[in-house]
Each structure stands twice: as structure tokens, then as C-alpha cells.
Amino acid sequence: MELFLGANSTISALKLLPSNCSLCLQPVSSQEHCLCGLCISKLPWLRTQCRQCANPLKSNNLCPECQQKPPPYRRCVAAFEYQKDTIDKLIMDIKTNPHSPETAQLSSLLSEVITLAYQDSPMPTIMIPVPLHWRKLLMRGFNQSSNIASILSRKLKNTVILENICIRHASSSPQHLKSRKKRIQGMGNAFRMHKNIDYRSDNKNDRTCNPIFEQSVAIVDDVVTSGATAESLAWTLIKAGAKHVDIWCIARTGWHNRFD
Ligand SMILES: [Zn+2]
Ligand SMILES: [Zn+2]
């Protein structure tokens, strides 16, 4: 069949074929839906958590770290607690396959969590995917956070994605064994705004305008681990004029299960 259809037609044809659940391998209805309903219900949904950083807790309070030194972002919205043997495999697919159906399904589930989280407050309308260092982008060939943001923008009304507004000029180093202070110091100046952004201006007619000036923005990431990357990027955006910065991520790593 592939010989006669050509590349694009082959992809379309494949989408029509029945697929199997990525976790239990039972058939599911379409390529878009790679997880069956039962496996979705068994995913490690993040229920009680820190009100600010979304660290998994036994109740919806502030965690000790946020009480001691609140992070620069207003809140973190995460769909799942990162756990080995469940969500980690799905996240790995998102990181390694730019066309992974897991990206579509988990991002879609995240969009539902985001909608619920902003029932009583205005939702940020600007999404900024966490930029990759150019070397990592070259090696991977795509930014998984941009792919997640792209699905979110289709699900969440009135949201736009701003790519390339922010540049990552430092590669991250393994951080899981460092103290929180050292992790944050290590990420301290990992990002900078694009040189054409004028921090003082929201003049849209000016090519050096600042589209985040006094705006609420959401940083989009696949997994928030220590929070150091999110904190560093949030500081950069706040210094560049953002009014509020929130974090939207598929999964949040708990204290007992941190990785890098
Ligand atoms: Zn399943
Ligand atoms: Zn916290």
C-alpha cells in the first residue's frame, strides 16, 4: 500500500488503522487516542498539591519551600505526578518522537486541568514554551514544549504561542544531587530575552515592541522537576515586564521521585 500512496497519504492511511493503548496494548479507537479510558483513569493524576509550585502534598497547602522563599511564578498547573513505570514512559515518547500521539493526548488532558484551574480567575493568554539550548535543539530536532503548547493553543481559546522571544544561552547540567539553592544558582542566568524586545514598550507598531509587557504569561514545559528552570525563566520574563508568570506542565516531580 505504501508504494502507491506516497508519504503523506501513507501517514493518513496509518491514522485510519486501529491502534493499541500505549500502556496496556488493548485496541483503542484512533491514532489520536493512544491511551484507553482505563489506563487514563489509572494515570497518577496530581490531586492534592502545593498551591503555588504544585509539589505533590497530602493537602492543598503551601509546601515548606514556598513558605520559606516563594518562587517568582504565581502558580504551577500540572496534570500528573511524575512517576516511574507510568507517566515516565509517555513523557519519554514526547521527548523522542515529534509526532508522538502521547503528546496530543496528554496535552489534551492537561488542557482540561488548566481550564478547571482557571474557573475563578483569568487565564494567561500568552504561552511561552521553555526554549531549548540551540545545541540540544539541533540534536533533538524539535522542542517538545512547543509541541505541547501547539496542542494547548488548539484546546484553549484566545491563547497564543510566543516562540523565540526568549533564548536559552546555557546548557543545563545534572542537578538532581544539588541543593535547591545551588540548582537555582546554576540556572540563574540560563535565559535572556531576544535582543529585539524593548523592555519598556508595548507599542505593537514597533518591531522592538514587548509583547509580554504587563501581560500574564504561561511557561509551557513537559516536566517540572526541581523548578529551577521554571524559576529562572520566570525571573527573566518578569524582569522583561510580564505582569504574572504561571507554569503549565504535563507532570510535576515529587520530593521522593526527583530526576534530572
Ligand atoms: Zn490501556
Ligand atoms: Zn510549593
Structure description:
- With 260 residues, this protein is α/β, with parallel strands linked by helices.
- The protein has two domains: 1-42, no CATH class; 44-257, Rossmann fold.
- It is 35% helix and 17% strand.
- It contains nine helices and nine strands.
- The protein has a five-stranded parallel beta sheet.
- Helix 5 (101-117) packs across helix 7 and helix 8 (180-187) crosses helix 9 (228-239).
- The longest helix has 17 residues, at 101-117.
- The radius of gyration is 19 Å and the shape is globular.
- The N and C termini lie far apart (43 Å).
- The relative contact order is 0.16.
- Mean pLDDT is 84; it is low at 1-16.
Mean of residue pLDDT?
84
Counting helices, strands and paired strands, the structural category is alpha/beta
Q: Proportion of β residues?
A: 15-25%
* Percent of residues in helices: 25-40%
Query: Total helix count?
Result: 9
Bound chemical compounds: zinc ion
Please state how the strands of the largest beta sheet are arranged side by side: 3-9-8-4-5
Q: Write the CATH fold name of the largest domain.
A: Rossmann fold
CATH architecture annotation name of the largest domain: 3-Layer(aba) Sandwich
Low-confidence stretches: 1-16
Overall domain count: 2
